[in-house]
């Protein structure tokens, strides 16, 4: 994956499970990005509530990649975060924004 796409706005991603996915910014390997998107889709299908979706994504990434991950899910929020290199993604899944990052 080109460095510009990985670190900048990657734009639309092929629809996953009929959902509209747009990666706004990412500093994360492509396979980890796909896992984050798939995890978010699954969480929204099973949980529905934003807080529960964020908790599920965070716990899944803590388990798979070690602590400490942070996840914010919602329609309207601002953020300014410091993250470990190669451990950040900000994307939209339909109308919801998901910010996922690791900090030690």
TrEMBL record:
Kindly list the biological process annotations in GO that this record carries.
microtubule-based process
| Record-linked PROSITE patterns | DYNEIN_LIGHT_1
Classify the main location: cytoplasm
Q: What is the similarity comment for this entry?
A: Belongs to the dynein light chain family.
Name it.
Answer: Dynein light chain
The record lists the lineage as:
Eukaryota, Viridiplantae, Streptophyta, Embryophyta, Tracheophyta
Q: Which organism is it from?
A: Dioscorea zingiberensis
The alphabetized UniProt keywords are: Cytoplasm, Cytoskeleton, Dynein, Microtubule, Motor protein
Keyword check for Protein transport:
no
Q: Extract the coiled-coil ranges from the record.
A: none
An example GO CC term for this entry is: microtubule
One MF term from GO for this chain? dynein intermediate chain binding
